Amino acid sequence: MSDKVLKLGIPKGSLQKATFDLFAKAGFNVSGYERSYFPRIDDNRIQLIMLRAQEMSRYVEDGVLDAGFTGYDWIKENDSDIYEVCELLYSKATSKPARWVLAVPNESDINNPEDLKGGIIATELVNATRKYFEDKKIDVKVEFSWGATEVKARLVDGIVELTETGSSLKANNLKVIDTIMTSTTRFVANKDAWKDDFKHKKIENIAILLNAAIDAKTTVGMKMNVRADDVDKILRILPAEKSPTVSPLADSEFVAVEIIVEARVERELVPELKRAGASGIFTYPLNKVIH
Questions:
Q1: Residue 138 pLDDT > 50, yes or no?
Q2: Whose CA is closest to 171, among 103, 97, 99, 73?
Q3: CA–CA separation, 54 and 187 (whole Å)
Q4: What is the pLDDT of residues 168-186, one digit of tens each?
Q5: Which of 14, 34, 9 lies closest to 85, judged by CA?
């Protein structure tokens, strides 16, 4: 049975809660992750192992794990030879890509990377930072930081730190002078595991469900009753790229119109639809949207 179980790495730390929330929305029941590095999942063909995102790609490359979730930044940092299944646009705070930025104190006279020549840079992303400065032909010393990197910005010449919203940098009175790289979460697989029929299908199934759950987070279903004479007018209001379902009702003077729309435009549409003659309008959340 050992070859019929997918060993799947889950990132422990900042991405942990967002990942398990996504699994729940995709239809998986995961439990025990508060107390164990081996959470339980309601699929006996999947074994979950929790590891730091920083080391995930190395364990996937080595075959210790069949697949796992990590950031693009750590794949590049580790120079891992793995198969990238898909990009997953979720993170601990937003759906926006995280950024590794070069930052210095607000009061510093340093305003561009060239001003750091001969200086010391503290970061957790050592290899990628070294390559960044080498590509720019700027001679600096890059030191590994064991966390609390913002604090070190006033002890060394600059830092390279990960940010999503920039709020932590602002709180520490730091200014960004350049972006080293942007990063999103990636679902990656061991190349041999990807060639295995069972594991390939299992990994692909997970990717489809997780992407469907991500798409559902930003969309809602919308349904309404419309007089048959008003259908064309209503359809012109709805997003042109969408194809609504129009169904007959028992009362032949009315039809039901149903569509999936971006959640951010729902509040704009509802009043317009009401004014155009739609009635019985209701919206509902979605668990999965599969394109």
A1: yes
A2: 103
A3: 14
A4: 899 899 999 999 999 999 9
A5: 9
Task: Report pTM.
Answer: 0.83
Architecture of domain 98-182: 3-Layer(aba) Sandwich (3.40)
Please give the pLDDT value at position 162. Answer: 92
The residue whose two tokens read 């179980």 is 5
Dihedral sign, Cα of residue 274, residue 276, residue 277, residue 279: negative
- What distance in Å separates the CA atoms of residue 149 and residue 167, rounded to the nearest whole number? 14
CATH 3.90.930.12 at 2-92+185-216, yes or no: no
pLDDT above 70 for 104? yes
Q: At what angle do helices 197-217 and 16-25 cross, to 10 degrees?
A: 90
**What's the maximum distance between 2 C-alpha atoms anywhere in the chain?**
79
Fold of 219-285: Alpha-Beta Plaits (3.30.70)
